[in-house]
Amino acid sequence: DRLAGPGPSKWISQVRRRSSLLSSRIEEEEGYNEEEMSYVKQGEDALKKAISILSEQEGWTVEIVAANGDKVLSKMLPDIGKVFKLEVMLEQHPDSLYEELVGNMEQMGEWNPNVKQVKILQKIGQDTMVTHEVSAETPGNVVGPRDFVSVRCAKRRGSTCFL
C-alpha cells in the first residue's frame, strides 16, 4: 500500500476532519494522578498545535526537493520561529509504520542517524508517554549529543496516525 493517497490539499482536509477527535475535554481517569494528567494535557495540546500548523496551507516555502520527490518545506511562525514540514511517499502499510514509530520507539536509534537512543520513562494510558532521547553527534563533532525529555502523544483513527 502507498500512503500517499490524494494530494496534500485532500490530506490536509482529512487532518482537519480528524483533528476533532482531539477537541474533547480530557477526563480524569481513575488511577491517574495530577502529574500524569498534566503530561496527558501537554501531549494533547502539542498535538493540537501541530495539526493546526499543518492545516494552514499558506506561507510554506520549499527548502529542498529530492530526486525521489521528497520535499522539505518551512514556515516562520511568530510565536514559535521557523518550523519544517517533510512530505514523502512511503511504500509501507500504515499498521507497520505505526508499529515502528510508536510500538518500537526505543529502537529508533537503529535506523535514524539523528537519534542515538530513545528510552520510554513512563507510559500513561494508551496514547501518552514520557521519553528521554539522546541525539547523535554531528559530523566533526560540531554539535555533541544532546539530551531531551519529551511528552509524546500518539493517536490513531483508521489509517490516519498522529504522533
From TrEMBL:
This protein's pathway: Steroid metabolism; cholesterol metabolism
Keywords assigned by UniProt, alphabetized: Lipid transport, Lipid-binding, Mitochondrion, Steroidogenesis, Transport
One term of GO molecular function: cholesterol transfer activity
UniProt keyword Secreted, yes or no: no
Pfam families in the cross-refs: START (PF01852)
All residue ranges annotated as the START domain in the record: 55-163
UniProt GO BP: cholesterol metabolic process; intracellular cholesterol transport; regulation of steroid biosynthetic process; steroid biosynthetic process
Reaction catalysis annotation: cholesterol(in) = cholesterol(out)
Gene Ontology terms: cellular component: mitochondrion
Source organism, top-level taxon: Eukaryota
Subcellular location: Mitochondrion
InterPro entries: StAR, StAR-like, START-like_dom_sf, START_lipid-bd_dom
Keyword Transport part of the UniProt annotation: yes
Subunit details: May interact with TSPO.
Full protein name: START domain-containing protein 1
Record organism: Thunnus maccoyii
Lineage: Eukaryota, Metazoa, Chordata, Craniata, Vertebrata
